Amino acid sequence: MSEISIAATTAATDKHVFKRVFLTGGSGFVGRNLIRHFVGKGTEVVALVRSEKAAALVTRLGATAYRGDILDSTMIDGMKGCDLLIHAAADTSHGAASPRQVRVNEEGTRLVLQSARTAGIRKVVHLSTESVLATGKPLVNVDETTPVPAIAVGEYSRSKAAAEAIALAHSAEDFQVVVLRPRFVWGRDDTTALPALIEAAKSGKFAWIGGGNYLTSTTHIANLCYAVECAVENGRGGDVYLISDGEPVEFRAFVIALLETQNIAAPEKTVSRAVVSAIAILGDFLAKLSGGRIVPPLTMQSFSASAVEVSLNIGKAQRELGYVPLMSRKDGLEELRNIKR
Q: Does position 5 have pLDDT exceeding 50, yes or no?
């Protein structure tokens, strides 16, 4: 990591008491950075991986690779001797409903939590998403009192909300489960949001929905790693915490800044929000009607993530976890500019 990231992630408190962490999703964007963060603090990390390639990756980062799957109870063996679980694995597809997403996000979470309890792990940080609150309408300065909607906007939101419920139902005095909900995770080593934006801009598929002049909360990866540490130290079992970089930013301005770090100019094309919403609704309908055989170009899940304001109030995390964003957007963007391409 760069000097900026190291300074940000190591500025956290040094009262860490958990010595061995079992991590799911270790080879993903968030998982890789969590390995760097906790290994950098002297914590042993055991990362669940499904392939030799993933095993080699997490090993290079300083973790111990454990071959297995979140749908396989044999991971209990890898968890033995660990006192903390960070559950970061998920199917994050924003497309139409799929049986795989249900299995990974719901059954996977249930089995991971059951295995951790059996293995003697004492605390769990479950990484969720603000998308569990998505309705397709603006979410303005929402906090943890905002209810999860009765009807989910898409399968990702529904399955992650179900995973949250499963995780929280496992929380007990001797097995505390804390849930974090970050929004728009970005930063160094991003293999999700930024590559998708770059591909859309280069292919001519990029357009601002309704001009893009609405607010969004964001979460730099260094801030998310620190939030996980804060949740480990101070999070209360059975509680949910929203996480972000602090004050929201205009969506258009932030995406332009992200693309500029890669020397890519954002297109000027704008499309009507009403038109895009109608396309997304139709796409969801056709996908459901065809039993998934029709793959829509856009879903309401995707629409809700990028077409309306989504701004979070992180006061609870600040008060109860002691969380303060360590990486500013300015420094995070500068870090991306300085990465050799």
A: no
Nearest to 325 by CA among 339, 338, 312, 307: 312
HEC readout, the chain: CCHHHHHHHCCCCCCCCCCEEEEECCCCHHHHHHHHHHHHCCCEEEEEECCHHHHHHHHHCCCEEEECCCCCCCHHHHHCCCCEEEECCCCCCCCCCCHHHHHHHHHHHHHHHHHHHHHCCCEEEEECCHHHHCCCCCEEEECCCCCCCCCCCCHHHHHHHHHHHHHHHCCECCEEEEEEEECCEECCCCCCHHHHHHHHHHHCCCCEEHHHCCEECCEEHHHHHHHHHHHHHHCCCCCEEEECCCCCEEHHHHHHHHHHCCCCCCCCCEECHHHHHHHHHHHHHHHHHCCCCCCCCCCHHHHHHHCCCEEECCHHHHHHHCCCCCCCHHHHHHHHHHCCC
Residue with tokens 């396989």: 72
Residue 89 has pLDDT above 80, yes or no: yes
Q: What is the pLDDT of residues 48-82, one digit of tens each?
A: 999 999 999 999 999 999 999 999 888 999 999 99
Which amino acid, residue 209? Answer: I
Please confirm, yes or no, whether 156 is among the known catalytic residues. Answer: yes
| Domains, in order of start, for the chain | 3-183+220-244+313-327 (3.40.50.720)
Pairing assessment for the beta strands 84-87 and 123-127 based on DSSP bridges: parallel
Instruction: For residues 7-36, give the mean pLDDT.
Output: 77
Burial (CB < 10 A; 0-12, 13-18, 19+), residue 74, is exposed
* pLDDT recorded at residue 340: 56
Choose the catalytic residue: 156, 214, 241, 323. Answer: 156
Alpha carbon distance 160, 126 (integer Å) = 11
147 CB neighbour count, 10 Å cutoff = 7
The whole-number pLDDT of residue 288 equals: 82
